[in-house]
Specification:
The chain is α/β, with parallel strands linked by helices. It folds into 2 domains: about 5-175, 3-Layer(aba) Sandwich (Peroxisomal Thiolase, Chain A, domain 1); about 180-325, Peroxisomal Thiolase, Chain A, domain 1. The protein is about 30% helix and about 25% strand. The protein has 11 helices and 13 strands. The chain has helices spanning about 20-25, 35-40, 55-70, 95-100, 115-130, 155, 205-210, 220-240, 260-270, 280-285, 290-295, and strands at about 5-15, 20, 45, 80, 105-110, 135-145, 160-170, 175-185, 195, 215-220, 250-255, 305-315, 320-325. A hairpin with a 3-residue loop joins strand 12 and strand 13. Helix 3 (about 55-70) crosses helix 4 (about 95-100) and helix 8 packs parallel to helix 9.
């Protein structure tokens, strides 16, 4: 019998109805549709209504999976939620999601690794399954980026959108599932990407609100430089370590941060454009949700046995690549 692996067996997603186009942003900040598209590859992004939290999208995505798999929520062992926009501090949004879907036998927690959150979550979930302790784990990537974006800052407001997607991971004894991972981090990242106020280093105050220090800030040039080199190198490393040629790789599923970063990663891997899965033009950067949203949009295209490389880069800095053999045909 082959080694027990953690395989993705179902995908669900939710995207808000409201669409914010580049033309809409032209009316808010000094930018243009052509400028945004040429530099990021983004045409539009989704925005969740005010008064609704990240959990709303996560619950919608997970309920799709439960319905598709006809799975009793009481059989769920664990819920991991990758997010940087929890409903509230202290109380884990994952715990609320688990209770709302009826997964009362599961334990749940949030995982914060920014845009690499889903990739890191795959590592955690697969380890639990390979250990034999758990059989049904829900991994969610969900972020309401509009809640932390300053829509007068053109460095950030053009990039990010809201969305959620989730996968069900289950044991597989036929060789399908997670094969390998290469994950890294570097604390220098918080100098270039993050939210200054609201943590223990700079608690919330009247001054921090007035200074707009609860919004996401980004040093675009430095983030781009680190992202291009590290995301591309991690993807190349995972191929080398598993003796994969560019012909062996069926698809690259990259974090949807910027089309130029994605193109650089594909070039480093020697992967042709038809193998690079993208939806950045429709949703922008949904942070922890980008990778599972790709799986949702292209689920019918994926075939059992496909070799898939996942790659991500996020604030912190966090980054890495994973290698998975797809487990099912839709």
């Amino acid at each position: 019998m082959k080694k027990k692996l953690a395989s993705i067996t179902s995908v669900g997603a939710y995207l808000p109805e409201k669409i914010l186009t580049n033309k809409d942003l032209e009316k808010i900040v000094d930018t243009s549709d052509e400028w945004i598209l040429s530099r990021t590859g983004i045409k539009e992004r989704r925005v969740l209504s005010k008064g609704i939290g990240t959990s709303f999208m996560a619950i919608k995505a997970v309920n799709q999976i439960l319905e598709k798999k006809n799975l009793d929520p009481l059989e769920i062992d664990m819920v991991i939620m990758a997010t940087i926009t929890p409903d509230m501090n202290v109380s884990a949004t994952a715990a609320f999601v688990a209770t709302e879907i009826g997964a009362t036998n599961a334990f749940a927690y949030d995982l914060q690794a920014a845009c690499s959150g889903f990739l890191f979550g795959m590592s955690v979930a697969s380890s639990y399954i390979e250990s034999g302790k758990y059989k049904n784990i829900l991994l969610i990537g969900a972020d309401k980026m509009s809640s932390i974006i300053d829509y007068t800052d053109r460095n950030t407001c053009i990039i990010f959108g809201d969305g959620a997607a989730a996968v069900l991971l289950q044991p597989n004894n036929e060789g399908y599932g997670m094969q390998d991972e290469f994950l890294k981090s570097d604390g220098i990242g918080r100098n270039f990407l993050g939210i200054k106020a609201g943590g223990s280093l700079m608690p919330s105050s009247i001054e921090t609100v007035k200074n707009k220090e609860h919004f996401l800030f980004q040093d675009g040039k430095n983030v781009f430089k680190y992202a291009v080199s590290n995301m591309a190198d991690a993807s190349h490393k995972i191929m080398q370590r598993n003796s994969l040629t560019n012909e062996d790789v069926d698809y690259l599923v990259p974090h949807q941060a910027n089309k130029r970063i994605i193109d650089a990663t594909a070039t480093r891997m020697g992967i042709k454009e038809s193998k690079v899965l993208m939806n950045i033009e429709k949703y922008g950067n949904t942070t922890a949700a980008t990778i599972p949203l790709i799986l949702y949009d292209f689920e019918k295209q994926l075939k059992r046995g496909d070799n898939i490389i996942f790659a991500a880069f996020g604030g912190g800095f966090t980054w890495g690549a994973s290698y998975l053999k797809w487990a099912y045909n839709s």
